[in-house]
Specification:
The protein has 183 residues and is mainly alpha-helical. The chain folds into two domains: 12-105, no CATH class; 109-182, Structural Genomics Hypothetical 15.5 Kd Protein In mrcA-pckA Intergenic Region, Chain A. It has helices spanning 16-25, 31-52, 59-75, 93-98, 101-105, 109-115, 122-130, 163-172; strands at 134-136, 139-140, 156-158. Strands 2-1-3 form a three-stranded antiparallel beta sheet, with no helix packed on it. A hairpin with a 2-residue loop joins strand 1 (134-136) and strand 2. Keywords: Nucleus, Ribonucleoprotein, Ribosome biogenesis, RNA-binding, rRNA-binding.
């Protein structure tokens, strides 16, 4: 019997269900972004596996492990819940479980802005970012796929000329604007 060109039991598109779920939840607009995050996760896992193959007392291994964990904590991929007495965010075993595509998606500007209560939904935050209402530090960011580190998270604010900022300040009573300016 001849070999079939198509395997009917294992489809190539089986992973698209998980992919679509993550893309819908975090409002990832481009599939290439998802694949880039997936490749990054694979590279980080491969690096951690190669480091684990070195002898445990090797000074290079301990130095690289702490550097990798510190970098992942600073980026925001690893959380501080499993903190040890050291300054980094966890153990090497956390990399296998916690470095996921969803962890990278949670560091996108739209998701962080939604978590900071700048928008009700991630979709609304994406619209605000694309329209130029949100800045990070002095720079106006119009790409919702911008990854926000822990240090940059404190500098996410409204653009000074944003109408949304004026409405929020007026509602909070921080500025007084006559009602005819809102029509």
């Amino acid at each position: 019997m001849r070999q079939l060109k198509v395997d009917f039991l294992q489809w190539k598109n089986d992973s698209t269900l998980r992919e679509a779920k993550v893309m819908r939840r975090y409002h990832v607009q481009r599939r290439e972004d998802y694949h880039a995050y997936n490749l990054l996760c694979g590279e980080i896992r491969k690096l951690s596996h190669r480091l684990s193959l070195l002898p445990p007392q090797d000074p290079f291994r301990t130095q690289m492990e702490s550097a990798l964990l510190d970098k992942l904590y600073d980026i925001g991929i690893l959380d501080g819940s499993g903190r040890t007495e050291e300054a980094h965010g966890g153990k090497m075993s956390d990399i296998e479980a916690k470095v996921t595509v969803s962890a990278f998606c949670r560091r996108r500007l739209a998701v962080v802005a939604c978590r900071l209560k700048m928008a009700e939904t991630v979709k609304m935050a994406v619209q605000y970012i694309e329209q130029g209402h949100i800045r990070v530090g002095p720079d106006v960011i119009t790409d919702p796929a911008f990854l926000v580190t822990r240090n940059m998270e404190d500098f996410i604010t409204w653009v000074d000329t944003s109408k949304l900022k004026r409405h929020i300040q007026n509602y909070a009573g921080q500025i007084f604007l006559p009602p005819h300016l809102f029509q």
